[in-house]
């Protein structure tokens, strides 16, 4: 079974959205909402070299664009990673899990689009890519983000004290969430 986003048949459609691989041409659309106060509050202000970073192949390889009626409304990171294993099982652990992240245009929040997009990403991870585990994290104060994780069936696994620097420069507490393939499949029988 493939374990790379490039092996998926793109684009992927949901009831209201289309997910596709990001291209260099998406940089301006993504930058237009990543710089908004409600997004940069959690992700930080986009760097001056945003376009160069966005165009880096290693970045484009893990970024999906979320469209509604042909307009970019958000993006999803699907970072496929190796799981820890002893050396003799390394081939089984290669590309066995993924970390998710997301950002949505502020005017598109509260309409269920983020939930729909993350559900589609989870379906890709478990059904199309055959991954074992998917994780996501957020600052404790980012209520919308952790509620989204809970809505899609992810379970809170960690609470860490002041482990990440918030864009304000303050060390903040974080939550870590995860979902296993068997949990996903049980939920979607």
TrEMBL record:
InterPro entries: Acyl_CoA_acyltransferase, GNAT_dom, N-acetyltransferase. Keywords: Transferase. It comes from the Bacteria. Residues 17-182 form the N-acetyltransferase domain. GO terms for molecular function: acyltransferase activity, transferring groups other than amino-acyl groups. The keyword Transferase applies. The keyword Transferase applies. This is N-acetyltransferase.
